[in-house]
Design goal:
Layout (H helix, E strand, L loop, with lengths): L1 H9 L3 E7 L7 H12 L3 E5 L10 H13 L3 H9 L9 E4 L2 H7 L1 H10 L2 E5 L5 H14 L3 E2 L2 E2 L5 H10 L4 E4 L13 H12 L6 E4 L5 H8 L4 E4 L1 H10 L3 H12 L1
Parallel strand pairs: 1-2, 1-9, 2-3, 3-4, 4-5, 6-7, 7-8, 8-9
Helix pairs in contact: 2-12
Length: about 260
Amino acid sequence: MEKLKSLLKRKKDLLSVYFTAGFPDIESTTKVLKSLEKAGVDFVEIGMPYSDPLADGPVIQNSSTRALKNGMSLKKLFEQLSSISAEISIPMILMGYLNPVLKFGVGEFVEQCKTNNISGLILPDLPYETYMDEYQELFTKNGISNIFLITPQTPEERVRKLDKASTSFIYMVSSAAVTGARDGLSPQQIEYFERINDMELTNPRMVGFGISNHQTFSDVCLHAHGAIVGSAFIKHLEQSGDDEEGIINFIKGLKG
């Protein structure tokens, strides 16, 4: 957690990239991770594939389906991370859904995160109240940041409550839609970003959902601390594979 917090304090225009563990191939996880660090990504979100995602669009859903068919599991993911985590200096976040974590065992899962230098977790279907009542102490004790999501529809009172409970950054979902690349920011999105900025929250904000190219990345960075790219990068992996040079060129294009 401290590595992530330090990064968020000292940098702006941050780029985080999401990819699905075990996609396009079962052994792609470590290759993609190394390539993203070499390409200059500030931190990464490693997707834990799940068969019934709630917030993912078709691109990420398909990558999860393929990863599961490849044999990816939480056990396999932690095995892969244990072989490489000491070599990775950028913060790593795991993103996924609560059911596989419950099945794995929350205590064991959090311990594995700590052992493998995971800075934070994004679990969109973990209710705030459940986290505060049952898991906050466990996460904090192990140095794992629980990252909350807000949307344009989140009331101000709840935004401030989530800000108070946050320990790294707030994930601003750019729209009420599911994940997926889009061409630009709408006036409604800009109004939303400015409204949240006017609240003067304690924690930095990262914007995700719909960031697909250098223009959308730059536009979002005018209103937040950085942006998270997911579907556009998954499309790149689908089309070009986990080749290091291709990944580096993709990130160069995003950053301009």
